[in-house]
Queue: 3 jobs
Job 1
Amino acid sequence: MTDHPTKVLVVEGLTKKIGKREIVRDLAFEIGQGEVFGFLGPNGAGKTTTIRMLVGLIRPTHGQIKIAGYDLSNQFLEAIRHIGCIVENPELYPYLTGRENLEMFARMVEGVTPQRITEVVQLVELEERIDERVKTYSLGMRQRLGIAQALLHHPQLLILDEPTNGLDPAGIREMRQFISRLAHEEGISVFISSHILHEVQLLCDRVAIIHQGRIIQTGDVHQLLSGEPPVIWKVSPLAKANQLLQSLPDVFDVEILENESIRTRLPQNKIANINLRLIQAGIQVTSIEQKKPTLEDIFLQMTEGDSLA
Amino acid sequence: MPNFMGLIYNELLKMVRKKRILVVLLILAILIPIFTYAQYRTVQTNIQNLGTSDWKTLIQQQIVDNQNRLTSSRIPEEWRKLIKISIQQQQYYLDHDINPTSPGAPTFIRKFIDQAISLFLPLLIVVVAADIVSSEHSGGTIKLLLTRPVQRWKVLLAKYVSLILLVSFIVTVTALLSYLISGLVFGYTGWNMPVLTGFDTQNDELITQGVHLVPQWKYILMSYGLAWFACTAVATLSLMVSVLLRSTAASMGTMLAAIIAGNLLTQLSPSWTTIKYFVFTNLSLTNYLSGTPMMIEGMSLPFSLIILCVWSIISLLIAFTVFTKKDILA
């Protein structure tokens, strides 16, 4: 029955055209059981369109989506049964209570018992407010109710669109822990879209990077997103420091920036050592800043790599 | 299979909790007393104009007049029959002590539906029906609804069935409320009062061949049945518009404009006979029962029923095709 028993999601040649515009083109990726898969790309790269195709809201122009071995377009009911999702915002019926919302979705799937509803409510820690109307909920609570709704029918694959969007820092941390627990303890595969590099690094096992509707790269998150982050030095005198940094063996890509500072690339464990060398040479160091690489940096790096290859 | 009753239950739950129905009930509860009072005023004016409060002598006089006309040999056979029926009706008023100018609640609800069928009830239906699909779009909940293991056509069918249940509810409540409220003023009797029906038109002439008397309760059942039919057609078209337009305001506006246009066109331009094929010029179905002549040539009860059916079927086809095929973009 299933081609890839351990592959929960297999996407091949996925393309969507609206009019003459190609929103996404020829996407291919797979998600294994219990894997947290990041779908990383800037806004407008085609992430939401892809997600809408994965959950059957949009029909692909070409390509195939297989969920738990079932083809989404030919065996919609069997395939969609294994998916739980939140597309964009967790929009539930504001005039119903949390429990009524869950009961409503339970009536649309086979085999969700009242005990299961209680269970997911406990899982997302909404017991106290579940019988109040959703319009009185905070965004974080709506997000949790959204997840409860997605988990209700024991899906194999959870699809979350920007799950930490709009949450406060505590909420973000909670959400991350929650997602890891789902994947690593309950064996649910999770597909997460995000435009925040840092988040994908923290959460995901593997990542696909999408840019202008195409996947630039897919792979292990640490391989793809590591590398030496740039370090920015505020020093004086500038010229002397520049000269010294250029001459040191572990320092690459030395560049003088406009605001009286120098950008370099170097391994993290060498920073203290280089700092000492600068001070010994009589150069005043006023600040050392390690920049987190942005998504744009990565794209730049990758697209450059592409054109060279 | 998740059962279909569950889907209908969901839709009904949403309708009730959205409180639109409450608004409709409130409108009815406020407007029916106003109409009752208006009717009361008309009755009072009539009594004043007649110059006498003794309606029994008046009816006896009318019966005598009619009997005199019957004896005249120049009256055609057709008229003769109509006059006989008239006498029968007037005799009933006398026998049962019913003042025809000051009728009971059943007469009020019969007259009320005559007036309400073409505009007032359709507007109420639009208020609850126009957002049935578009509100899921504007609320974003369509994404949750369509990512369940349920075919899209089933989701829409559940909405349509609930809508028809809602139409039935509104029509019934209209009858009940107008009975209860107007009865306070006019009294609750008069169900068996005979009412004329069976009119037909041909080449612009009223044909009275089939005219006969039916008890009022039967007439009211027929009226409300026809009203239900007209309202169902309105609900069906609203469903289509609601599928096609994403915003509730837009779909409600479109439907209101179309219904009002249908009413205006009939009155403004009765000589332009093509408009009889337009769905909303065919809503006044009870006019065929009461024999009120239609403004446009060539309209009859079967004609109007067919027009309403054809428009409804086409709307359903469009609604289901679009709803099952459409991409749900942002």
Job 2
Amino acid sequence: MNELPMTFPKILIHNAERFPPTKAAIREKDYGIWQSYSWQDYLDQTRDFALGLAALGFKRDNKMAIIGDNRPQLYWGMAGCQCLGGVPVPLFQDAIHKELHYIVDHSECRFALAEDQEQTDKLMVLKDEIPRLEYIIYDDPRGLQNYKHDWLIAFTDVQEMGRKLGKENPDYFMNAVNDVKPDDMSIISYTSGTTGNPKGVMLTHRKIADCSRGFLQWDNLHESENVMAYLPMAWIGDHIFSYGQALCSGFTVNCPESTSTTVHDQKEIGPTHIFAPPRIWENILTQIMIKIEDSAWIKRKAFDYFMEVAKKVEKKRIANESVPLIDNILYKIGVFIIYGPLVDNLGMSKIKVAYTAGEAIGPEIFEFYRSLGINLKQLYGMTESTAYISMQKDGDIDSDSVGPPAPGVEIKISDKGEVLYKGPGNFIGYFKNPEATAETIEDGWLHSGDAGYMTERGHLKIIDRAKDVSKLNDGTMFAPKYIENKLKFSQYIKESVAHGMDRDFVAVFIDIDYGAVANWAERRHIGFTSYTDLAQKPPVYELIKDEILKVNKSLSEDPKLKNSQIKRYLLFHKELNPDDGEITRTRKVRRKFVAEKYGNLIEALYTPDQDSVDMEATFTYEDGRTTTMKANLKVRDVETF
Amino acid sequence: MNEEKEPILRAENISITFGGLKALDRVSLEINPGEIMAIIGPNGAGKTTMLNIINGFYKPDEGRIIFEGKERPKKMKPNLIAAQGIARTFQNLALFTGMSTLGNIMVGRTMLMHSNIFSQALYWRFSQKEEIEHRAAVERIIDFLQIENIRRTPASMLPYGLRKRVELARALAAEPKLLLLDEPMAGMNLEEKEDIARFVLDANEELGYTIALIEHDMGVVMDICDRIVVLDFGEKIAEGTPDEIKADPKVIKAYLGTAGG
């Protein structure tokens, strides 16, 4: 094999040369039909846009903000910007104004590319506040025909300017592309921190290309793969998957018609490769369980029976043991009547490899998908490592580890138990933030901030955020998130907060899943008026207790965590909500805040014989009125093993 | 706006009586091409009756309708009037509940189809080409109203707000010269109202439709309409721009009763 191109403009040109026009590079569902673009189209669209940007005065090292749902035009915009040696800065499309303001300002964007009117409106407000932002380019002209500004230009008009420049100056594009070097910055990806302002992670062409190719080789993925692009473009996962891997392998990226049609569109495409955070896998599972609960008795029984079979078979498969003949036959029948139709309904019947990444996934959720025959694997990475640290290998799966180090990556555990790593994807630094960079990189080793250890099989196991891990009074390790994730596997539990630092035992707050529990209660003719009322019904306490017992059972199997079984619990009177500050928008518990706000509830959990606690909460409505809600929350014990 | 333009529809001295009740009494109004016009008034003022006369469902006892410069014959059938290019939505929904969104909107294209039932059934040559063209037009409307996700959902399974939107889609599918909307926002919450208001504005500004609507929500009417006609007890009591109507003492009286008794 001759040398592979190392910059994305070059990789794109290479793809246009090596693939026939019949090979789809990117598809978009529009007007109910999949519209497909070849790699030559991808290049043409990108080139015209890049030249248009040049005509508007876009210079090397200029930054361009990109905001919107996954659309081919936005990927072309990203590539176009890179062709001129510029740096795209993708933004989360649902980020609030303050966040967008910070990032657009901090990254020094001169240009911005928006998907539609909604995003354009947001950028126009920013433009008033940030004079450095000169041009806003929009893709979908819908609703924008009355906006008349010199600095507001349609994507197609920019391309038209580009074609003109291309005619006048035919060498311009290739000269610009040749000036782009593999070690030039190719993207700034802002990470949303739980504390402080977002930090801009700088990555280069070489890093993205190396890591993308590393992933492709690991799973033997080729140009024939099909993927769905529906996760935020600002997430490093999407960048690696829908851009890095797609360009490096030449596989086809499919953009759904709209957010609300994703599931249906996925069914039509039948992707072979999926990359999604645990939240998505959890949601799909909850949807399945609700539908199963509502189905006829016979279907429910069949489902329960065959899922048990599947679980048993999967346990053997994971352990690389042979499956007894009878189970094998039962599994085959299960494929025919349960697993096959179910997987097909999820649009996952053609999956070669699926990844969960970005957060810890509950082992039970993970095993559920695997037992259906979906090759779901875990991957551990972060923006700072170009998502590339460790991942599981076919035939060497473990439900609660994240696999061995990826090729070229070294992992070591610090004295404090923190995971450190060094690899091809290690970022070059935070944009304009040398202090934070210095804190994170030490002698070439990157601090992950996660606590973990290497198992005997040589797999990395992540326990929790390093700063959250503590000890119970008897010295047992207490990792709150690990326990919470186990609880969250239950379809009836939406969120939970585990307490135990410097205490004698572990106790939890539980936030019921209103939809699932309401459904459960209705079928048992249990009347209720509100979330609070439902949560305090004794049968609901019993229901949740059974779920906690399952978690305790599973904790008791791990000698290290045996003593961190849950002894007391209470059901929360409201859902944890980012607006109330209890969790972040990416649904991470803000422990300190919860501990301060609900101190009396925590005390009740640790006061022996106290079986209920009064609480008062004040809510502020949008119109400024406030109401005070009083509730009496029951506290209950759970048996341990 | 070009004031000299010939109105697309002119109603002159329309009167109609139901039993002993004079529902409309010598009402005249004009609808100009490219505008959004609203007919407002208290309950029972005759708004829906006026709309029913415009689209030919009722025949006026007196007066005449002039559409695109031609006087409408007295006994013209509503379907022929629809074929002339007047489409409407209804105050109480009138969708085919067993049909999908797609099917319902496709019905709106009926007037524009030319091939006969037999060649349609065979889906052959001309009718195949025609069907594809119509389907493309329907897809553009689906895109316009952002209802991609309910394309295949039967109308009976849709929530109220979306049904209203599908009805609007069906009316747009007929590519009418004049679009009549009977309370397009009735029974909606604020967010749904804002959505529909946006779509009505876009249909007018982007697609160039001439629209006459009846609406109770004064906020919406004042926001999106170019011109307003006010009816009260079957009589036209005022006509003008939103600002003029807001300041008109007769309108205030009709809506709020006589000040000071």
Job 3
Amino acid sequence: MKFRSVFDIIGPVMIGPSSSHTAGAARIGRVARNVFGRQPKWAHVHLYGSFAETYRGHGTDVAIVGGLLDYDTFDERIIQAMEIAAEQGLEVKFFEEKEVPEHPNTARLVIGDDEGELELVGLSIGGGKIEIDEINGFKLKLTGENPAIIVVNNDRFGCIASVANVLATYEINIGHMEVSRKEKGKLALMVLETDETVDQEVMDAISKLPNILQVARIVE
Amino acid sequence: MLFRTVRELIDLAESQGKKISEIMIEQEMLVTKKSREEIIGQMEKNLQVMESAVEKGLNGVTSHSGLTGGDAVLLQKYIEKGNFLSGEFLLDAVSKAVATNEVNAAMGMICATPTAGSAGVVPGTLFAVKNKLNPTREQMINFLFTSGAFGFVVANNAFISGAAGGCQAEVGSAAGMAAAAIVEMAGGTPSQCADAMAITLKNMLGLVCDPVAGLVEVPCVKRNAMGAANAMVAADMALAGIVSKIPCDEVIDAMYRVGRAMPQSLRETAQGGLAATPTGKRLAQEIFGTPQKK
């Protein structure tokens, strides 16, 4: 069951014109920004399938940039996202890819600044709902049927236990978990698929833990 | 999860003597662990967004491309003259569906039901039948939960995006959802809701997604108009006691298989159907200076 909530169907409240190409696109951009943890200085956006063919008509480009600026689907600033990004020194390039993707609405975002870089592949699966398929070349084996969060942390002992502990406190069961790191002792990330929705209070509690750098929802 | 199919939904409602909207609210509480008040409060907000969008569209809007806008106003003026042939509530639903989609095309704020491209049908029919049935605010909110319940089954067993399944998946689903919700509001049984959904979706099967210039405007706005009309007529048919020979779940499954068989050119790529007509291509050229497709 990829659509879990009635508000996946009656919702989201959004700026038109397309739930998959505008609202979904904005959400993919916003997740990328949240996982990156700050506004990037540059972004290379690769569009595939229907995204590549119709992005101008649907405002997909504007919406992804709006997401990178941390705007929600109903934020009217999305309409001016290109101009605002330019003013704030966020340089964006779009690439129309010919490759036929597994899902018709796929975007690969490579974003970064002087400090670092992030690569994320997002799918817009309909009605504004999205799935994150890949982060930094790390293919996520998520079912998409349960809520999921990503945690970026310093690679130290106890981090995984402390996150699991917070979830336990809020009586949230972990159904599936993946951990990955680039280099021992540097940056690590964990992806947790849960049976229950992880609300903002829990997210805040996790982000306050030592050595935790970012927490973001990747499946609502 | 309380239900995954329309059959399960109907059985639950009928065996417990509850409305479909009530089953949807109970499932939402179960899945999200949110309180009833919180869930109803969120739906109330969505209802307000829909109401504002209808109002804005009826005052007249125009999209950036200039392709759409103003038709909701034309229809309202036509209704006022009183010389219409089909029916007042039917045309009112059509004009309010058009109003919502004109606002969507103009990058205004709407609530996706189930998508933005098909956002006109559910509120269009709701705010039209409201004038006939005089529902309470609670009944209007329930209209959205009932629509959501049917959309939930379609989304999980087929698809609701034009890129995946064509317009039948978007406006087809929206019209089916609306038809079912109208039946509940008018006092029909859960089975009649399912029949209304089935009758509607059967008549939307095979509808392709072929937006001119890739914009959610032509033919999307008019597809919402006819989706609303389809929903209103199907609701009346179901309330008259007409039963769908093919059960609702099987119609949804047929919609899925038809969508899978649809070529990519007819699934929101602006390469086939109306987008590929001489006029469709000329409009794309005029709007973007270059053809969208190189």
